[in-house]
Specification:
The chain is built from 10 helices and 4 strands, in the order ααααββααααββαα. The chain is an alpha+beta fold.
Length: about 475
């Protein structure tokens, strides 16, 4: 037994090796910077929690509800639990499985089969502690499978973080869209009320013969256009509210509030290499790449002999009351080595499959990096150009407001036809709506940049690289 223990210890020490290829982080398949739109100053998005970035209480409440009730996030959390359990199962394969065994056997041998020529009655009772067939991981196959399961677990946890970041951004964007529609609806209602009063005045003028019916039809046109816009915006608001309700995960009337939106923090983009540590989706893709790398080690180890150990120790006796008597000790020690000689190319194809899956995981990792680079670049570009568009839209609204005032004055003094007023009022409403849309598009770009930079990801860190759940 002492020699056997020494042999097992030696095999365990030898089983620390792994046949997986060395892992190295792939080179970045993108440029070294985002271009001229990068801001060197500002907060780091990944270290800025959503409560710090979105300071409006109404929006904070919606995000908190979504994090508690959203079904996509709930599914992502359950998948983490699933991957943790799968890793626990695979990790247990590295340890021996002990089981207590107890058995009783009573048999009768007929006379014609007995050496004595008489029937024989026999009994056997046994109690033992047994070691099931335990693979000694001489070539690192079990260790590689364990590493792959760990990386899959970490990838799933990183995917949960990615879902969280995306959910926060989706709720914020949806809420901003709801506020935009509320503001546009308010403008449309104000315009409708003003034009309804103008229609009433022109109806009375036509009744007393002080203006033509042509002018009346032009005023009616302005009124119906404002009405139609208001109805269209109400429909769009209902659709947007349904989308926000789905994200939040709880039924109920969702309303926006007036006042500042609270999305004003400046964020610094940093370098594309920073995304490798900050974007959860990139981390998930890299963990998947590491898992496929470990699978290659397991596939390589399958070409070498598998060493297994089965043993038991206990007591046995022909009489029940003799189980624990002196001299009843029983033990067995049965090591085994197996190596398939012919398997119709199963192991070779399994290795080829693992290598192909690693190539796929590498391509997916590079695609995740490129997609993240584009997300940040798009958000930075949008922030820059929408800032200019907002200023232009504000200037255009000021000009259209003055034009509408002057056109009305010229018509009142008989210096212009009402068609000029009609065009000016139509353009004024369009300028008002455009300014609101552009301003909220700028806010949405800030939300997009926060998400693209892994906003708040460092608040919910996953397990360390070599941690255990």
């Amino acid at each position: 037994m002492r020699k056997s223990a020494v042999l097992v210890a030696a095999l365990l020490l030898a089983g620390c090796a792994s046949m997986a290829p060395p892992y190295a982080t792939p080179a970045l398949p993108v440029a070294g910077s985002y271009g001229p739109d990068t801001s060197p100053d500002g907060e780091q998005a990944a270290a800025t929690g959503w409560r710090d970035y979105f300071s409006e209480p109404a929006l904070q409440g919606l995000i908190a509800q979504a994090l508690a009730n959203n079904r996509d996030l709930r599914t992502a959390v359950l998948r983490v639990d699933e991957a943790r359990a799968a890793y626990g199962i695979q990790r247990a394969e590295a340890y021996p499985s002990l089981a207590a065994q107890a058995g009783a056997n009573r048999s009768r041998t007929p006379a014609d089969l007995s050496f004595t020529g008489k029937p024989l009655l026999g009994s056997q009772y046994q109690v033992a502690l047994g070691l099931a067939s335990w693979e000694i991981d001489f070539w690192g196959r079990v260790r590689s499978l364990q590493d792959a399961a760990l990386q899959n677990y970490l990838a799933t946890d990183a995917a949960r973080q990615a879902v969280t970041v995306a959910l926060v951004a989706q709720v914020a964007s949806s809420y901003l869209a709801l506020r935009e529609l509320d503001e546009r609806i308010a403008l449309a209602q104000q315009t409708t009320t003003s034009r309804a009063e103008s229609l009433r005045i022109f109806q009375r003028r036509v009744a007393v013969g002080s203006t033509s019916r042509l002018n009346l039809t032009q005023v009616e046109t302005l009124f119906t256009q404002a009405q139609a816009l208001g109805v269209q915006l109400q429909q769009a608001r209902a659709t947007q509210m349904h989308a926000l309700t789905l994200l939040v995960g709880t039924p109920g009337e969702l309303t926006s509030t007036a006042g500042p939106t609270g999305v004003a923090l400046e964020l610094r983009a940093g370098l594309p290499s920073d995304l490798l540590l900050l974007r959860p989706d990139i981390l998930a893709a890299e963990h998947q790449l590491k898992a496929s790398n470990a699978d290659i080690g397991a596939a390589r180890a399958a070409f070498f002999p598998r060493v297994a150990l089965t043993s038991s120790w206990g007591t046995a006796s022909a009489e029940l009351d003799g189980l624990f008597a002196g001299g009843s000790q029983a033990w067995s020690f049965a090591p085994s080595i197996s190596l398939p000689i012919f398997d119709m190319g199963r192991r070779g194809n399994n290795l080829a499959l693992a290598e192909t899956r690693r190539a796929i995981a590498l391509a997916q990792y590079e695609k995740a990096v490129q997609s993240a680079f584009r997300d940040v670049s798009d958000a930075l570009s949008a922030r820059r150009w929408l800032t200019e568009q907002t200023a232009i839209a504000q200037s255009a609204l000021t000009t259209q407001t003055e034009r509408a005032r002057l056109s009305q004055m010229r018509y009142d003094n008989g210096a212009a036809a009402y068609l000029d007023v009609l065009d000016a009022q139509r353009d004024l409403l369009a300028a008002q709506q455009q300014l609101v849309q552009t301003r909220y598009a700028l806010l949405a770009s800030r939300v997009g940049l926060y998400a693209a930079l892994g906003g708040g990801a460092l608040e919910n860190t996953s397990l360390p690289e070599h941690g255990t759940p």
